[in-house]
Amino acid sequence: MEMFTSPEFWLAVGQIILIDILLGGDNAVVIALACRKLPPNLRTKGIMWGTAGAIVLRVVLIFFALTLLKLPFLKLVGGALLLWIGIKLLMPEAEDDHSKMEASDKLWGAVKTVIIADFVMSLDNVIAIAGAAEGAGAHHQMPLVIFGLLVSIPIIVWGSQLVIKLMDKFPIVITLGAMLLGWIAGTMLVTDPALNSWVPMQPGDKPGTTEVLPQVYYALGVGGALFVLIVGKLLAARKPAEA
What we know:
The protein is mostly helical. The protein has seven helices and two strands. The protein has one domain. It starts with 6 loop residues before the first helix and ends with a helix.
């Protein structure tokens, strides 16, 4: 019980809640985008199963949190996946008979999309939570990590439902959501360790560390968002023309 009287514990708790709000919102957008075409009676199921997959992934990833993102080329692969998912979300549904799947197939298709995207996006979330928990000391780290995962559940579930309602009323939210994935992809690509010798760097907050120059980081984020928007719209425009 002494950990509840520790200032470091509550500081880490506040940091984890903020991380969940900032980074969990991205996951909510992904789940909402993937589930938006489901019938209303299946949307809640899609969100719940997608969220369950997200939480299971985070539990697994937390054990590798200190080494996963240090592996070269992992972020490059993840960024490419997010670009593909973002472009795909801007594509119109096919109208031919082969696209008329049963509702259950659509449900699991949406859940699969959620899990692939969430796997990529959960890496930064898990690392951030683990870093915040580390500041509270070794004895408190694992309880704080578990707390961070539990806090993320309502943020993702409620956030996904809110985003779906917004997309129903304002279709431009779909475009903005796809561009958000492009932004995340661009910032992931530029921070991959394999590119450290190619990307302009500056000294990091901790001694002996380096980080990407802010202007380069944001430029790649904007570039990723514009790439998804332009390629997605061009391919979407070609589909009706080909039909």
